[in-house]
């Protein structure tokens, strides 16, 4: 390849190239005169050059060396400059990529933070609702416990009164009619019709009385009529409560 390049330059530029080991390449040796007729032939250097030719050749060699050195220095400076520009460009690109990445991460982080804040707010609302429901249930439980206690006390009181009524077998009314109609009068009767009349419902006179009216304590109506009564059919006192009595 080097021989072909040298031959090409010799044939087209009309002067040969001399290889210099110190400079690391070919050195152009331009003669003082060029003969057009010998353009396609190689120049032949005389074996005994003159002194003027030696000086010209030496000066030209020094000039060529200085030009090559200058071009080499310019090339080195150009390479250094290009490397610096490339380094700055790469650094700017890297900064832009890092800034874009940071911006993307910040946006994603803000989105996740907002989502977490919304989740925390939802959980807080659910917790508040559950606490409110728990307090309401506790209040309802306390209310039902109080109502149950009152009902138990009422049942105990009514049971006690019924036991007293059944034990005493004494009617609170002094008239014979009230004695006959009161549950306290349980004296035996010899007449079956009178006995049926005593235990018959005072509202319908057909069914057996099985409901005790309170507070007058008259056993005077059946279960069906009790729901329709607002007062005792015997003494006309206001009905406050009632209780079904099972008699053997």
Brief description of this entry?
It comes from Cinnamomum micranthum f. kanehirae. This protein is mainly alpha-helical and 248 residues long. It has helices spanning 2-13, 51-168, 176-181, 192-199, 223-226, and strands spanning 17-20, 25-28, 211-214, 218-221, 241-244.
Structure overview:
There is one protein chain. The protein is mainly α and 248 residues long. The protein contains 5 helices and 5 strands, in the order H-E-E-H-H-H-E-E-H-E. It has helices at 2-13, 51-168, 176-181, 192-199, 223-226, and strands spanning 17-20, 25-28, 211-214, 218-221, 241-244. The chain has a 3-stranded antiparallel beta sheet with strand order 4-3-5. Strands 1-2 form a two-stranded antiparallel sheet. The radius of gyration is 66 Å and the shape is rod-shaped.
The number of helical runs is 5
Report strand %: 5-15%
Distance between the termini: 139 Å
Principal-axes shape call: rod-shaped
- Succession of helices and strands: HEEHHHEEHE
Main CATH class of the domain at 174-244: Alpha Beta
Weakly predicted, low-confidence segments: 1-49, 170-190
The order of strands across the largest sheet is 4-3-5
Number of strands: 5
Instruction: Write the CATH architecture name of the domain at 174-244.
Output: 2-Layer Sandwich
Rg, rounded, reads 66 Å
Overall residue-averaged pLDDT value = 74
Question: Considering the protein shown, what is the CATH homologous superfamily of the domain at 174-244?
Answer: Zinc/RING finger domain, C3HC4 (zinc finger)
How would a textbook summarize the main sheet? 3 strands, antiparallel
* Secondary-structure content class: mainly alpha
